[in-house]
C-alpha cells in the first residue's frame, strides 16, 4: 500500500508516495547529495540547472555501476565455464 513520505531535497520539502518508505528516503538522500555537490561546484546556477546536472551525475554513476556489474557477470561466466571444462576433463579421464 502506498504511503506518503515527506523528504527534503535541496532545501525544499516534497511529499512523495510509494510502497517502500526506506527506499524513497534513500533515493531522496542521493538526489539531495548530488544537488548539494553540484551547487557547491557551480553555486550561481539556477535550481533547474542544478537538478539536471545532478541527474546527469546520477545517471553516469548508474551506467558505470551497470558496466561493472556486466563485467563481473562475464568474469563469473568465464570462471564457471573453466570449472565446467575442468570437471568434464576429470570425469572423462576416470571413464
What keywords describe this structure?
alpha+beta; 95 residues; two-stranded antiparallel sheet; 15% strand; single chain
What value does the average pLDDT take? 96
Q: Outline the low-pLDDT stretches.
A: none
Strand order of the largest sheet: 1-2
In whole angstroms, how far apart are the ends? 59 Å
The profile of the biggest β sheet is: 2 strands, antiparallel
Strand content: 5-15%
Classify the helix fraction into a percent range: over 70%
> Outline, from the CA principal axes?
elongated
Q: SS-based structural class?
A: alpha+beta
Helix count, DSSP H or I runs of 4 or more residues: 2
Number of strands: 2
**Radius of gyration from the CA trace?**
23 Å
Instruction: Domain count, please report it.
Output: 1
Spell the H/E element sequence. Answer: EEHH
Describe the structure.
The protein has 95 residues and is an alpha+beta fold. It has one domain (3-94). 73% of the residues lie in helices and 15% in strands. It is built from 2 helices and 2 strands. It has helices at 21-41, 47-94, and strands at 3-9, 12-18. Strands 1-2 form a two-stranded antiparallel ribbon. Helix 1 (21-41) crosses helix 2. The protein is elongated and about 75 Å long. The model has no long low-confidence stretch (mean pLDDT 96).
Q: How are the SSEs ordered, and which strands pair?
A:
Elements: E1 3-9, E2 12-18, H1 21-41, H2 47-94
Antiparallel strand pairs: 1-2
Question: Can you summarize this structure?
Answer:
With 95 residues, the protein is an alpha+beta fold. It has helices spanning 21-41, 47-94; strands spanning 3-9, 12-18.
